[in-house]
C-alpha cells in the first residue's frame, strides 16, 4: 500500500514536469508553423533565435527565486504556485497576436520553467532510499513525454490551440495537487513535528514505521550544524564540494547538444539534408527520449548512477562521431546521420536526466532548495547562451562540425563524471550529506 501511495504522489507532482516538457518542445512546433507561408505572424532568423532562447533567459531567475521560496514555504506549496503560473503563461501565449507578445509570454513561461525543480525536490524527500532512484526518473520521463505530446499535437493542431489545451490542463492539475501532503522532511527541518508525523503517516500508512522514521530524522537533524546565516554554509564541505562538482559538470554537459536538438528539432533535422519530414523526425526523436527514460527506470535500480552516466556519455560520443563521419563524406545517404541522432538520444538520458536527480540529493537538507537553485541557474544560463548562439555556431561549424563539437564535449563530460561524481545509490539524503562533510564513504 505504501508503494502505491508513493506512486500516486509522484505521478501527481510529475504533471508539472509534463507541462514543462510541453513548453520545452513547443518552440520547435512554433517556429515551424510561424515560418509557413500565410502565417499570421512571420518571423526572420534573428526573431526565431530569440523565440527559442527566451525560453531560458529568465529561467535562472525563476530557479533562484524558487530555491528561496521552496525552503521557506515548502515543496508542495511551490507545486501549487507553479501550476497557477503555468496557467497564466499559457493564457498569455494563447492571446499573443504580435511577435512582442510572444516574447513576453515565452519570457514569463521561461521564469516559470525555472521553478519546476520543486518537482524533483518533492519526490526526493517523500521517497524511501531504496525507491528514490526510480521515482526520481519519473520527473524526467514526464518531461520527455511532454515533448513527445507537443510534437504530436503540433502535427495536427495550431500553436494557439495547443496553448489553450495547456492553460486548461494547468488549472486542472492545480486542484489535483491538493490531494497530496507536504514533504515530511521539510516539516521536520522547520521543527513542525506534528505536521511531519501526519504527512509521513499519509505515505507510510503505519504508525510504527512513522514513529521509527521520525526518530531517525530527529537524530540525524541534531548532527547537522545549526548555522543561522545562509552564506556561512558555503564554508561547509557538504556545500562547497558538491557545488563545485555540479557547476563544473554543468559547463561541460550543456555543450553536448541535446537542448539544441530539442529546441530547434524541426530545423535541426531539416539541416541534415534528409528527405524525411522534419516534424515526423522530431516526433520520433521525442518518442525515443521517452523510451530512453523508460530504460533508465529499469536500469537505475540495478546499477549505480555514475556507471550509467559514463555508459550514456560514451554512447553519445560514438553516435555523434558516426554522424559526423557520415556528413563529411559526399554522396552518402543522410539517413545514417539521422539514425546516429536517434542512437544519441537513446544513450542520452543517463547523462542528462541523472544529474538533475543528483542535484536534488547531494546538498544539505536545510538549504537544499537554495543550493539546487544556484546550480540550476548556472545550468540554465548556459542553456540560454547555447540556444541563442546556435545559429552562429551552425553557420561557423556547419552541421558536420556541430556533430564533432557535440562528440568532443560528450567525451570530456564522461571524464569529468569519472573523476568527480559521488555515489548516492541506496543511501539516505542525510548520509550523502555527511560523506561530503567528513570524507567518509559508506
Provide the fold topology.
Elements: H1 2-34, H2 45-57, H3 59-73, H4 75-94, H5 99-113, H6 117-126, H7 129-156, H8 159-176, H9 184-189, H10 193-204, H11 207-223, H12 237-253, H13 258-263, H14 265-271, H15 278-299, H16 305-328, H17 335-359, H18 368-388, H19 390-420, H20 429-438
Essential attributes:
Growth Hormone, Chain: A, 79% helix, mainly alpha, 0% strand, 442 residues
What does this structure look like?
The protein is mostly helical and 442 residues long. The chain has one domain (2-180, 224-438): MFS general substrate transporter like domains (Growth Hormone, Chain: A, Up-down Bundle). The chain has 20 helices and no strands. It has helices at 2-34, 45-57, 59-73, 75-94, 99-113, 117-126, 129-156, 159-176, 184-189, 193-204, 207-223, 237-253, 258-263, 265-271, 278-299, 305-328, 335-359, 368-388, 390-420, 429-438. The longest helix is centred in the first third of the chain and has 33 residues, at 2-34. It is globular and about 70 Å long. The two termini are 30 Å apart. The mean pLDDT is 84.
Instruction: Estimate nothing, just give the exact number of structural domains.
Output: 1
Q: Name the beta content range.
A: under 5%
Distance between the termini: 30 Å
Tell me the overall shape.
globular
CATH architecture: Up-down Bundle
Which residues form runs of ≥5 with pLDDT under 50?
none
Elements, N to C (H/E): HHHHHHHHHHHHHHHHHHHH
> Largest sheet at a glance?
none
Q: Give the mean pLDDT.
A: 84
Radius of gyration: 22 Å
Number of extended strands: 0
CATH superfamily grouping: MFS general substrate transporter like domains
Which class in CATH terms?
A: Mainly Alpha
